[in-house]
Structures are given as structure tokens and as C-alpha cells.
Amino acid sequence: MEPSWIKYLPLFIRQRLEGRLYLQNVMSNTGWLLADKIIRMGVGLFVGIWIARYLGPEQFGLLSFAFAFVALFSPISSLGLEGIVIRNIVRDPSLKDEILGTAFVLKFVGGTAAFLIVLAGIALVRPGENLAHWLVGITAAGMIFQTLDPIDYWFQSQVQSKYSVYAKNFAFLIISVVKIFFILAKAPLVAFAWAGFAEIVLGSAWIVIAYQATGHHVKEWQLSYLQAKTLFKDSWPLLMSGIAIMIYMRIDQVMLDLMAGDHEVGIYSAAVRLVEAWYFIPMAVTSSVFPSIVEAKTMGEDIFYARLQKLYNFMSLTSYIIALPVTFLAGWIIELLFGPLYSKAGPMLSLFIWSILFTNLGVARSTFLTAMNWTKIHLLTVSLGCIINVGLNYLLIPRYGGMGAVIASCAAYWFAMHGACFVYKPLFKTGYMLTKAMIYPKIW
């Protein structure tokens, strides 16, 4: 039975989709994920900008530093399990409860370890700063409550992400209202950290309810030491690459804070927030097409690479559509949304917006590496990007401040996604495919 939304599409699209139930499910799933991310982008951006205007660059910079510092260690909590769990369930659905139960235990251990490491880390880099310690500690505690994420992986593997969307958006919208109340009540800075923690807890509770409501039961999950060994064997390179990714995506804010102060981080974070608002596109699309990419690998090399090229082309085209207008309107956008106190973020945004081309294609390329089980190559490429980012930040931040961090990040993102493909021979073909996508992103 075709989904009801099909009838609202143009005739030529309906004709292409007729009888292709799997493609219809992928499009439906992508639609749910896009709806989720669009709601988060719209509401989250609105509330986030309001918070930034309320707090001012100094306090907003400190809050952004806390989020960035915790993010550096978040891969320890996730353990790189998402793609591996989804892939294994697609390959053998009969092992669902064993895979989910084992992933749950692994994530609990990882989340607890990450929390303790974060507490030790912030005490070392900002000793005696109690407010910074509280902000980081509250934010880090949320990692322990993300142990139920395997339920989301299950829904993704079944192309049923609408249930995750229901659960997480319910929590997100409630906490967004709470944040607005905090602004109107002139709440202290630490209140916004507590709000972020509450969103994670509430979202986890509701995703369990969604899982139970669809006929599944958490109590049926099983812990398998053999499964744990298998999962960790495949995921540890993704864990290491996840750490490297977070370093080259978040080290800019941490280094900028330590080298230039909270105020400069606040200015820089205004530009970052507007760029990262668009990250929902690659995450939503790849979450939906990943099962079909895995399936295509078993259908033949030509089909496999054809689907990958279409994915790369789509990512590239959407990046250009976003980046070109923002480049010329960046100053006006910053002044309109954040106010004159953040005007220095305009030039940063006009350059940093181009990083979405590299991040979008990088996320798309990761589906290929995961499907091929080339997780060690993934680790190599992002590690090289990480080294470049840290080195350039160290050289450029003292002279150029936030703009130096922008330049360093863009260079690192490009190299990790594209340049590194020509360093390692097995990725030469992928490098040419990515080049083709950036030059001529044909999607029809």
C-alpha cells in the first residue's frame, strides 16, 4: 500500500515512484527526518539567537565553550556504534534484541566514562572557575542518559524514523518553551545548561515509550559478550575517528576560548550557530539512504557506486544553494538576528558557510566507508584533518582571533573530506567522485 502523501506529489514524480515501495519508504523516512531537523533548525535557531541576545557575547561564549568542551568527549559516550548497529540489524534482523541490548550496555559504560573524563578535564584547563565547572558538569551528565539511543538506531534500520521524531521533538519543544521562560524570567546562565540536560532525559523517556508502543520491549534485550566483542571490533576505529572529528569540529571554540577569551568565542559562536543550523540536511538524508547503500553493495559494484554518486551530487548541490546567498548577505543576517554586539561575526559567517560543502560531502562519504567496513581509513582521514585544524588554530588564532579559527576549520574540513582521498590509493576513486560532485552536481 502506497503512503498517503504520494498523491500530493506532481504527476511525473508519482509515475517514477509507482510500484517502488522501498524508494517510497526511504522518501517518507527522509521526510520525517527533514521535518524533525527543520523544526529543530527553526525553533532551535530562534530560541538560540534569543538566548545569545539575552546573555551577550561574554556569557554566550562561556556557554558555547561548555557545550564544545563536552562535545570533544562525546564520542567516548557513543562509541561509534550507530552505523555499525544499523548495518548489523539490516544484515540479520533476528539478532535485534541481542544487538540492541549489548549496544545499550556499551553506551552506558561509555557515557559514564566520558562524564568522569570531562569532569577531570575541565578541572585541569579552567581550575578554580566554579561557573565553568557547573556548566560543563551539567551538560556532560546528559551523556549518561543517551544510553537509550540504540532504540533510535532500530527505527533507522527499519526506515521508521518518524517514531524517533515524535519522541525527540516532544522533548525539544517542551524544553524550548522552558528556555523562553528562563529568558523572560531573567534566569542565570546555569539554568540554560539544566534545560539542555532535561531535554536529553525527557527525550530518552519518550523514545522508550515509542519503542514499547510499536510492539517491542526493552526487557527482551539481551547482553552478549560475543556481540559486544563484535560490535566494538568494528566500531573502535569509528570511535577514534569520532574523537578526531569532534576535535577538528569543536577544538576551534575550545582553543579560541583559552587563547582569546569568552567574548571572542561568543562572537565566533554566532557564526557557527548559523552554519551548523544546516547540518540537518546530510544527517537526515544519510540516515535514510544508508540501508539502501548497504543493500546496493550486495547488488553489484555499478549500482553501489551509482547510488553513491547521486548522494554526493545531492549533497554538493544543496551546499551551493545555501552557501552562495549567505556569502553576500552574512553581515546583514548577523545584524538582523543577533544585533550590533555580534557584528564582527558577519565576515566570519561569509567564509565559514562554505564549510557545509565539505561537511555535507564528508557525511555522505562516511556511508561509503562504513558500508565497505573501511573504518580504519575513516580514522586516518579525519585524524589528518584534526592535526591540520589544531596546527592552524595554534598559528592563526593569536593573530586573527575568530577569523583565524574559521580559516583553520575550513581548511581542515576540506582536507579530511577531499584532500585525504588522494593520500591513500583505495580512496582515489572516491576522490574523483567527490571532485565530480563539486564541479557538476547533476542529480537528475
Spell out the key features of this protein:
mainly alpha, globular, single chain
Summarize the structure in words.
The protein is mostly helical and 444 residues long. It has one domain. 81% of the residues lie in helices and 0% in strands. It is built from 17 helices and no strands. α2 packs across α5, α2 runs antiparallel to α10 and α9 packs antiparallel against α16. The longest helix has 58 residues.
The major β-sheet equals: none
Low-confidence parts: none
Topology as H/E string?
HHHHHHHHHHHHHHHHH
E-strand count:
0
Summarize the structure.
The protein is built from 17 helices and no strands. With 444 residues, the protein is mainly α.
Topology record:
Layout: H1 11-17, H2 21-78, H3 81-91, H4 96-125, H5 130-141, H6 149-157, H7 162-184, H8 189-213, H9 225-260, H10 262-276, H11 280-297, H12 301-338, H13 345-352, H14 355-371, H15 375-400, H16 402-417, H17 428-439
Helix pairs in contact: 2-4, 2-5, 2-7, 2-9, 2-10, 2-11, 3-4, 3-6, 4-5, 4-6, 4-9, 5-8, 7-8, 9-10, 9-15, 9-16, 10-13, 10-16, 11-12, 11-14, 12-13, 12-14, 12-17, 13-16, 14-16, 15-16
